[in-house]
Amino acid sequence: MDKKTKITINHAEIRDWVEKHQGQPAVIDSPEAGSEPIGIRIDFPGDTDEVLLAETQESKPVSWEDFFKIFEDKQLAFIYQDKDYLPDPTLAYKFINRDILSTLVDTNKAND
Q1: Of the candidates 56, 63, 74, 54, which has an alpha carbon nearest to the alpha carbon of residue 27?
Q2: Rg of the chain over all Cα atoms, to the nearest angstrom
Q3: C-alpha pair distances (Å), 69 with each of 25, 54, 61, 62, 103
Q4: Are 79 and 103 in contact (CB under 8 A)?
Q5: Quick one: which of 69, 70, 68, 78 has its CA closest to 98?
Q6: Block means of pLDDT (10 residues each) for the chain, length 112 residues?
Q7: pTM of this prediction?
Q8: Which residues pair with 24 in a beta bridge?
């Protein structure tokens, strides 16, 4: 992982990054998910990130409170690119399960 890639579970840090890049918290509601819980994502202005959704999925705006409730319930972490300018912020972040954080940290130490 390069020095511009960061991992956090800090809500304020996540919110700051999202708002800096003009994003909004959202949920993904898929009718095909059945009993699967609703997922989260960040919606950015423009159409570029809509192609990442399946045809049956719908993205809906959500409050930060609801967003972070899902984030905590699913025990997620946020990986993001810490750069001032991102041509496409939809490709500069992702959510991962927290249980793999120790693996990522160990790998980073080995690569330093």
Answers
A1: 63
A2: 15
A3: 12, 24, 14, 11, 25
A4: no
A5: 78
A6: 83 96 86 61 72 58 95 95 81 91 61 48
A7: 0.77
A8: 43
